[in-house]
Amino acid sequence: MLVAFSVTPLGVGENVGELVAEAVRVVRASGLPNRTDAMFTTVEGEWDEVMAVVKAATDAVAARAPRVSVVIKADLRPGVTGALDAKVESIERHLAEDRS
């Protein structure tokens, strides 16, 4: 499965990058395939391992913020692996065809 999630600390002011980085550190330390962009961090793996990473990342931020908002979007596709890269590669391939 792929899970895209964002963890937003609340009640700590406008500059939240340092606290969000704590969540990303947890994700990267998990060893699961992942990618972070301006809005979300996406993690690939089995349900229990991915959700454990989301919880740990949330807990890392909650340890330093009085309130935390979490947004989660999941794509469950049994038997599929490598979707984190394959989906992007498919789009890039289609875009390249447009230029041909």
TrEMBL record:
Residues 3-92 form the Thiamine-binding protein domain. SUPFAM superfamilies: MTH1187/YkoF-like (SSF89957). InterPro entries: MTH1187/YkoF-like, Thiamine_BP, UPF0045_domain. GO terms for cellular component: cytosol. Pfam families: Thiamine_BP (PF01910). NCBIfam families: MTH1187 family thiamine-binding protein. Belongs to the UPF0045 family. This is UPF0045 protein. It comes from Actinomadura rubrobrunea.
